[in-house]
Amino acid sequence: ADRIVVKIGTSTLIRQNSKINLKVIKKLAHVLSSLKKDGKDVVLVSSGAIGVGMGVLGIDTRPIKISKQQAVAAVGQAELMQIYNEAFHEYGMSVGQMLITRDIIDYPESHTNVMNSFQELLSMENTIPIVNENDTVTVSELDHHTKFGDNDQLSAIVTNLVDADLLIMLSDIDGFYSANPLKVPDAKLIDQITKINPDIIAAAGGHGTKFGTGGMTTKLKAAELILKHNQQMVLTNGKNPEVIFNILSGEPVGTLFT
Ligand code: ADP
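Above: inputs. Below: predicted complex with adenosine-5'-diphosphate.
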């Protein structure tokens, strides 16, 4: 794969004690920087703004009020980008923050602008674009007009837009299982999925952690979009981001949607 999108989930970025997992971020910066230096095009889609904001502001539970979530996300996004910036600087890389909304699909002018930005950023030798949804202008979880719904689907849309070969989704679980392993301990890892059929959808259980948001349902929706565009997606555990090297060298890792 010459152009890849990597999505990292909140459950991988934030530890159960609300602290940000710096080790993972540093390793991710190392892996993505070395891919970029090898001539690959890399886009990072990062969740975590609300989780990081909660840590900064000392809030224990995710706010219910949407406006509060937006404010917490605004604080967290700044902190998160600062951490990425420092981590990538270690490897001589700059990061470019791209905060986007559904407008990029609905409005041709917005679409053109974001495509141009991607093209310029991807053509820069030492820069990695980091994408997140612009939480302060998207209205609510239910508002499908402005909101993508979650970063899982956003990462699939970005993969479609930049015409990447592969989306690597880093989560807190090794792949897609026959049932939610938190509830069904003998659930089996499925190595390859070629079609999102009703049995697969039924296997996606509820939410995993207190910070994770979409669970598997939104990951399947993302996979559907990827398959529709004849692209590939690997879902795997992000606890060691070096797994990205294994994936790119063709080793079977996690669940491959193809
Ligand atoms: P992220 O923050 O990485 O987006 P989520 O917490 O939203 O992650 O989703 C991952 C969680 O989904 C897992 O920890 C797991 O508990 C849950 N889950 C539900 N059904 C399944 C399944 N069939 N296979 C794997 N994980 C599942």
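The pocket of adenosine-5'-diphosphate is lined by residues 9-12, 171-173, 176-177, 179-182, 203-205, 207-209, 212-216 (CB under 6 Å).
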